[in-house]
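Hi everyone,

Forwarding the result from last night's run.
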Amino acid sequence: MTKEKKSFMEKLIGSRRVEDDIDHSSRHSIHPTPVVEDEFEDISIPESRMETSQNNFSDNWSSAQSMESDESGDGQLTIDVYQTDEDVVIKSTIAGVNPEDLDVSINNDMITIRGERKFEEEVSEENFYYQECYWGSFSRSVVLPVDVIAEKIEASLKNGILTIRLPKADTNKTKKIKVRGF
């Protein structure tokens, strides 16, 4: 068995390929290979550069997290977006929300879904065994992949699934424009 040379990232973060952890002589057992310190001796990264990389990672991570939730602290919906021949379709699980508590709006090439899931029981924090459901306001904005006809968009909520159908605009049509002279 030939040992592949580790990539820079593998050496830097100390990870190993899955194949490196598998004993190929026996298909029935997996034996992790121990990490030996001198495997990493040929890496020399100045301390200042390591600190800069860590700071950049922290800055990027916190800005990515702030982009995920709205400034008001809204939760974010999970969605599926796909296309048919005629429509772009957006589906999202929104159990426990009444249709009148949903706001779906479109502006240029972006659709926004907002709403609120209300927890209607009074349960004190210490009485919860698990608390995994999201309660409160949520929102999600999606940049549409194609032009749609806003006037013909339909949204329905059935069995806790929100389905939004956005008819595609026919962008292949050539429109003749008459030029007027003055």
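Residues 60-71 have pLDDT under 50 and may be disordered.

Cheers,
N.
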